[in-house]
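@channel sequence for tomorrow's demo:
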Amino acid sequence: MHGDIPPSPHDGEALHDTILRKLTYDLGKSRAGALDRDWFIATALAVRDQIVAPWLKDMRSTYEHGQKQVYYLSLEFLIGRLLRENISNLLLTTEVKAALASLDVDAAKVFASEPDAALGNGGLGRLAACFMESLASLQIPAFGYGIRYDHGLFRQVIRQGWQEEYPENWLEFGNPWEFARPEIAHPIGFGGSVEQVNGEDGEPHHVWKPAETVLAVAYDTPVVGWRGKHVNTLRLWSARAADPLQIEAFNRGDHIGALSDRVRAEAISRLLYPSDDTPAGQELRLRQEFFFSSAALQDLIRRHVRVYGSLETLPDRVAIQLNDTHPAIVVAELMRLLLDDHGMEWNDAWRVTQATISYTNHTLLPEALETWPVSLMERLLPRHMQIIYLINAIHLDTVAASHPGDLGLLASVSLIEEGHGRRVRMGNLAFVGSHKVNGVSALHSDLLKKTVFHDFDTLFPGRITNKTNGITFRRWLQQCNPCLTELLVESIGPDFLDRPAALSALRPLATDTTFQQRFAAVKRTNKEALAALIRREINLRVDPGALFDVQIKRIHEYKRQLLNLLETVALYNEMHAQPQRDYVPRVKIFAGKAAASYHRAKLIIKLAHDIARRVNRDPAIRDRLKVAFLPNYNVSLAEMIVPACDLSEQISTAGMEASGTGNMKLALNGALTIGTMDGANVEIHEHVGDENIFIFGLTTDQVAQRRAEGWRGQDSIDQSPRLQQALEALSSGVFSPDDPGRYRDLVQMLRDNDHFMVTADFDSYYDMQRKVAQRWARPAEWGRSAILNTAGMGWFSSDRTIAEYAQEIWQVPVPG
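structure tokens (generated this afternoon):
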């Protein structure tokens, strides 16, 4: 009967029947009329049946045993496709493929028909997804809280080399993994006024009367850990108007105006990262951040009170982790809920708040450490501004008492910036309201203490700690590179599947000629698959035997795609000037999205296409250099590129990349890194060895020194004829004959104010790329280094990162 107990995990025949039953009774489709997408939904629902019982059991067990839970708050969760991940973690891959084959259905097409849930922009959101999977794999009870964006990050379309943005309709045909929870709907207030009234105890109490209320409605997705040992919950909030239709206005004939409240409310969860170039855009961004933060707190407090009663014990049962400053308003909102809704005294509420919250910083870029105009905060969240003012006053009184007369220190650590327009510093609020603050790589955490949080580190020694990021090996090795996984299991045994550190057993095989050949054969197979994708997507033929040189990440000036492109131009010029030389065939592969309002990043995308158009069509190059920009970068595209990469570009300006996780994924799959000593590159260098990574460029201290000395890009350009020639080609329109002046301002910026040190690092980068080519020309040496990269990456598992968070920040036991 439909809805009976799910089949056992190893019963392929029962899975066959369940999939067919889902197709028939849940989708109302026949086998003959079913599309690939229908088979995907039916299969997902059948697999979901395997998850629900353990999911409910694990949630019940958490409360029965009084376990402390982790609540991970993130504006982004870049989860990607889930079918392949879930069947892999449930050890059902063989059974599902067999069941689909028995139905004459192509499993690969079914997997490919799943929409990519683009609920994130890059590393921040993908890290959150990896952490959620590791929390489940380590059997740590956890909830992820975020927003169920209708459209997520935009779909990138390239037209004539320019990026255009379109909605990503990932929910167009529904989401079979989620469970709607309409009964869980928390009111989220905005605006209005705050009144002071006398309570029953005679003491004054504050009552916030919002002018507008939006409902946060829950949608739950189970998160399956490795081997199905534990299942956690990703709860995403969708915004709904409290009154979806103004009937009176509708009956008057104002059919559009009658929906205005609904449109305004639902805009909150409509789109990830709406442009904040305008005041309206800034307000929407702040509304999003408060919306999911308040919903998360109301939700976890409701659950805690129901099970445990007193909120005095909240830190004993709850650990809240803020993923960057987006949920920093949690500090003020938790105080409001404790003070106003639950009648707690200020000192007790502050103790509970600090002991419960911890904060992960992801950036040293000032523009990414969010600040909000005080005027906007006072209008949108008036009660929260009262609380922030009082937190700040008490905080500054304490600082002034220990450092009398130090006005500079007070200004530095204040929660309010008094400079050009008063603004609330969300990073400072998160720091003051947390018991631990962590960076995401050793270098980044050290720089936090030296730069943006230097004064806080002096005031609160020991509060800043490091937790170097990691990646889940289940997705970024086992699922995206099954051929390599099979080779590793055959060669060193399966221990690494459960204990990533066991990858070190691969080291002795790095010089084994037979193993090198088999390792290279796997890479070649993956490169052939990527070459086929490149041909399908952008109609470009590339040689799988060439060096695949990959830079895949968000387009940003500090990530320096521009440096890579300038080296491409210089190499192209050299091939023309000295055609007789024996050049290593190379395919430069780019992918990434630029923020919709980031005009210079979009110009860099156009430059990549202009260079590609000229280079790829030039017969004199004889196919020794190709440039490919793959559109609409997402998790699924990354899963194709990562296993096929030979050279991983991690070339950010030293001191500006907090960690990076793409560097880990690529190295794990046998790519060699070319990079600066920045972010987690520093630790990758330590783990793989100096001879197996290509480090170039200025160090963090050297970058800081040059900036302090007033260095100009022209200083480096004058010393580099090769760079001069490349820049002249850009500024004279060699690559943009339709618009010769397209890149003149970009070149002038490099001459006058090269803040990201592109010109300063150019010669070092170019020379290191020639060393890359020399190593590639010696296959045995390259193969040895590639194997040692994979062998050295065990430490970069997100399981290790989460275990460190659990033990050192959350005070949560790690089973086993």
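heads up for whoever presents: The chain has three domains: 1-65+82-115, 66-80+116-468+803-810, 512-783.
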